[in-house]
Amino acid sequence: MDRMERVALDKSLDLLAARHLYDAARKRATASRVRGVLPELAVGIEAERREQWGVGPAAAVSIPLFYQGQGEVAAAVSEMRRQHEIYADVTVRLRASAIATPCSAIASSSAPSHAGSAVSGSTSSLFRARIAAS
Length: 134
Hints:
4 helices
C-alpha cells in the first residue's frame, strides 16, 4: 500500500465512523448470543398469609431449553455483517480514490492539496447514502 492510500485511510472520518458502527454491531451480536444462553434470574420479596403474614426473599431461575434467542441472534449477526460490508465498501472506495487522485492531479496539473478534498468528498457522500439507505 502506498503512502497516499495510507494517508487517505488514516485521515478518513467516514472510515472511522464505519469502523465504529461495525464494532458496535459486533458487540451487540456477541451480547445477544450470551443473553440467549444465560438463564434468567429474578430476585424479589415474597409475602404469604396462612395464619399469619410471612415475608421473605424469593428467587426464580428460568433456564432456556428450547428458545435461546435465535431470532435476536440472527438479527444481530445480520446487522454485524451489513456493517462489515459497509466498512469494506468505504475502504475500497477510499483506496480507489487515493490511487486515482494522483493520476488525475498529474493529468490536470492541479495542486496536491486539492487531491485530499477529492478523496474525502467522494466517500462522504457514499457513506451518507449507505447509512440513509439502511
